Amino acid sequence: MGELVFTRNGVPVATAAPTRSRPALVIGLLCASGLAVSLVQTIVVPLLPQFPHLLDTTPSTVSWLITATLVAGAVSAPVFGRLGDMYGKRKILLFSLALVAVGSVLGAAAPDISVMLVGRVLQGAAFGVIALGISIIRDELPEEKVGAGIALMSSSLGIGAAVGLPLAGVVAQVVSWRWLFLGVGLIGFLLVAGVKAYVPESSLRTGGRFDFTGAFGITIGLVCVLLAVSKGSDWGWHSPVVLCLIGGAIVVFPLWGWYQLRTSGPLVDLRITARPAVLLTNVTTVLIGFAMFASFVMTTQIMQAAPSSGYGFGLSLVGAGIAMLPMGAAMAVLSPVSARISAWRGPRTTLVFGGLMLLLGNMMAAFLPSSLGMLILATTVISVGSAMAYSAMPLLVIRAVPQSETAAANSLNTLMRQLGTATCTAVIAAITSAMTVHAGGTVVPPQTYTIVFVVAAAAALIGTIIAALTPSPEAAPGAAGEAAPAVAELKAA
Fold it and tell me: Is the pTM of this model over 0.85?
């Protein structure tokens, strides 16, 4: 009797019969993990104006609470994705959730900004959770549950962002900002226990040696890019520091790519990443992330702006939080629907439809609706588009890569989302600083919001066009669906 053994570059890959019990519980725990990580990204945003007083520091130092998490998350996502493929996805997932929990508790107890920054770095180091969760769902759950599970898991980043922004404001206003961090920490520890007890370890592993040189190279390159993008408005786009960072990225990434193409077992398999179905999906991801995040950032500002501004509604933090709840609800409800559309017409169709919804919603918001109901409708349309797009992108990626590369490929796709949100933040800062009037007080003209939403709509349009032109992943050579039989070998028992 024979035993099927999968190989990658001649290296045997461990396999086992997938666990089929309690798929709903597994999906629930993994999606809750994604929500927790998304909350980490957003809970400090409404509190940034208060932290200089609360932590006795300067606004420029407080801005590092966002930058540190962004950089740590961008670096950890591809590294943890590769480690998951090599040594076990659940094992790395548990480690990531533990970092979230420890970093959150550290942030809750932080006596000053330096300790808080350490906590934020630990929190950011867990951004690979989404890709790891998607890979476990793909590897271990029954086929009929995979589509809906991946759609909900992928959308959890957007759902968490939509819920996290208003939730942070409400908790900070009613209780204390420290409870935000403590709550996320407790959730993190509970998820560690739940995942360990009920989520199966993925049976597919690549083995081999970890590419430390590749990890170091991508770390340097990403730090240069993200610091330049996130700090360009503060430091000045023509400042020596920003120019050196951009120059460093231009030098490092080609050298890193050259090394990745010539080493065995690279951190990122660029030959797979360069496939049109993968490359164009990742480019689309950056643009979709930009189009989505603009709404999350700007809508809360419009809702809380004074009516005398000509566009605001004068809501409190609590009121704005309640008004934004339909955004998160729409993403949660539409994710399973998106999976059905992908099963019926293919994930590319779902992505195109989602991009069109993002275009429509941002154009609706660009005209600064005169009623709160119309603004909520516009942001809900954006949320529907985000749910559609976010649910389709990982399906496109996993259909175009070998199954042994699932976590690494989706980690790179998650990184593209972060690049999109980071770019969005930089563009918003640049537009706002250029148009804000400071004479006799800070005044943000309504044209500022209109321009931001129009730029977001343009990003959605370009992303939709690219998605429509992306070749079907089923046609990509060596796609996941056909990779396994190609590498299976019969070993005598």
Answer: no
Q: CB of 159 within 8 A of CB of 35?
A: yes
Token pair, residue 78, equals: 């591809």
The C-alpha atoms of residue 186 and residue 104 are separated, in whole angstroms, by 8
CA 388 to CA 352: how far, in whole Å?
9
CA distance 285 to 466: 10
In terms of Cβ atoms closer than 10 Å to its own Cβ (0-12, 13-18, 19+), residue 249 is buried
pLDDT tens for 346-374 read: 889 999 999 999 999 999 999 888 888 89
131-185 pLDDT per residue, tens: 888 888 888 888 878 877 887 787 777 677 667 767 777 777 777 888 889 988 9
Work out the number of other CB atoms within 10 angstroms of the CB of residue 362: 29
Lowest mean pLDDT among 9-13, 81-85, 466-470: 9-13
- CB distance 413 to 393 below 8 Å: yes
Residue type, 251: V
Phi, psi of 6 (to 5 degrees): -85, 145
Dig out the tokens for 177 from the structure: 């900002």
* Helix axes of 89-109 and 113-124: crossing angle, nearest 10 degrees: 160
